[in-house]
Design goal:
Layout (H helix, E strand, L loop, with lengths): L2 E9 H15 L3 E4 L12 E8 L5 H13 L7 E6 L4 H4 L7 E4 L2 E4 L14 E4 L12 H14 L6 E5 L5 H8 L3 E6 L2 H13 L7 E5 L8 E7 L2 H14 E11 L3 H7 L3 E9 L2 E8 L3
Helix pairs in contact: 1-2, 4-5
The structure holds S-adenosylmethionine.
S-adenosylmethionine binds next to α4, α5, β9 and α7.
Length: about 290
């Protein structure tokens, strides 16, 4: 099957942020090509972002990508669109999804990669069959959220946990494997389908995790709410998350310079833990003592 690619050349230091924005806005997978990946990028200080689609990209898509470029201060970056008959990338990219330790003792791997001998003492082994949903464990925001999730939920009596923006279900699966009852909420039905497919791969069922398609927080009470979503959405959802959460909120998906704005939206809750990977932040919030 033929496909279209949109290629954007960007300074390497912006690639993480820009790929994140484009993935969120267009709801697509964005591949970063640099010296370390399958196809070398243009120059060491630049890399190439690649979005693949089966249909010719619409002008609205290109406009949304341009808006993302303006937002990261890179409006001059060249955007190229190409039609390609070669479909080998569909299998080629799989080579780059390898087992990743997302938190100490927590391995996330694709079904075609066996758990390595030396990793047999792993605390949790999560299998993700990556569709186009976000959440293969390689992104810094997932790793930050995973670390804080394990820290919060390990060795606790069973709690009620919400994973808002569950993507492939990766954080829900970790929480369920630690013995908790989980609801995973996702705005994108394709991602929810992928999350649902990942349940049996991890010997879990609907009794352990309920995956729901929605953009709002369920009107229920949860002991712990986890949300790894971009900062503007974390801010929009703050009133709903604060109402639903009875004990601990775990936030990821924000950049360090968005921290103040996000914390303002979560007034009445105080950060008790703050971890950083590059420019990305992960926070644990607890209800402030009154
Ligand atoms: C950064 S991904 C996180 C995926 C996964 N939880 C992880 O940590 O790898 C954010 C996800 O939130 C979803 N999302 C965005 N806004 C949402 C909303 N209001 N409610 C539920 N999901 C939302 C996106 O579709 C995306 O799959």
């Amino acid at each position: 099957m033929s496909h279209w690619s949109i290629e954007i050349e960007t300074p390497s230091e912006l690639s993480d942020w820009l790929s994140w924005l484009i993935a969120e806005r267009l709801d697509v997978a964005v591949e970063i090509q640099d010296d370390e990946t399958m196809t070398p990028g243009p120059e060491p200080e630049f890399c190439r972002l690649l979005v693949r689609t089966e249909e010719e990209p619409s002008s609205d898509w290109v406009k949304q990508i341009q808006d993302c470029l303006i937002e990261v201060g890179c409006s001059e970056a060249p955007i190229r669109s190409r039609h390609d008959e070669d479909d080998s990338w569909r299998l080629g990219w799989r080579a780059f999804f390898k087992a990743t330790e997302v938190a100490p003792g927590v391995i996330v791997r694709p079904p075609w990669s066996e758990l390595a001998e030396k990793a047999q003492n792993t605390l949790i082994d999560i299998v993700i069959d990556p569709g186009l949903a976000f959440g293969t464990g390689t992104h810094a925001t997932t790793q930050l959220a995973a670390q804080l999730t394990v820290k919060t939920l390990k060795e606790q009596t069973p709690l009620k946990v919400l994973d808002q923006g569950c993507g492939s279900g990766i954080l829900s699966l970790i929480a369920a494997r630690l013995g908790h009852k989980v609801t995973g909420v996702e705005i994108d039905p394709m991602a929810t389908r992928n999350a649902q497919e990942n349940l049996p791969l991890n010997h879990l069922s609907d009794d352990d995790i309920k995956f729901i398609v929605a953009d709002a927080v369920p009107q229920e009470e949860f002991d712990v709410v986890i949300a790894n979503i971009i900062a503007p959405v974390l801010i929009d959802l703050a009133p709903q998350i604060k109402t639903a959460c009875q004990d601990t909120i775990i936030l990821s998906g924000l950049l360090s310079d968005q921290e103040r704005q996000v914390l303002k939206a979560y007034d009445g809750w105080s950060p008790i833990e703050r971890i950083q990977q590059g420019e990305w932040l992960g926070l644990i919030l607890k209800k402030a003592e009154s």
